[in-house]
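User: Hey, my collaborator sent me this sequence without any context and asked if I could get a structure. I don't really work with proteins. Can you help?
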Amino acid sequence: MKKLILLAFVSVIALGFEMQAQAKIQFKTDTIDYGTIAKGSDGLRVFEFTNTGNQPLVITEVFSSCGCTVPKKPDGPIAPGKSATIEVKYDTSRVGPIRKTITVNSNSDTPIVALKIKGEVTN
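Assistant: No problem. I've predicted the 3D structure and written it out in structure-token form, which is a compact way to encode the shape of the chain:
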């Protein structure tokens, strides 16, 4: 009977540790400000992040609120403590304000993160 109770106790503790083990995504910033840029300028910017969790981080999907912004997710998992980037390319052939959202889906403790870009493209 003591062995059964001990086994149940160890199982509950192990389950608790397993539940705490997960990836965590932490961005340096969640907004990139292009400022005022000229039409036809380089629209490539980079969001930097770190996996601050204790399990590999897998980014499953990255998408934009419109076709004028093309995000690129990293290939493969990001190990605990490692950093990576999400590239965002905005089509600067369009004159006017920039206000777009990039959504990041992952296995992080926060599975959905919204990133923003802003600025203005001028002639």
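In plain terms: The two ends are 80 Å apart (CA to CA). You can pass these tokens on to your collaborator as they are.
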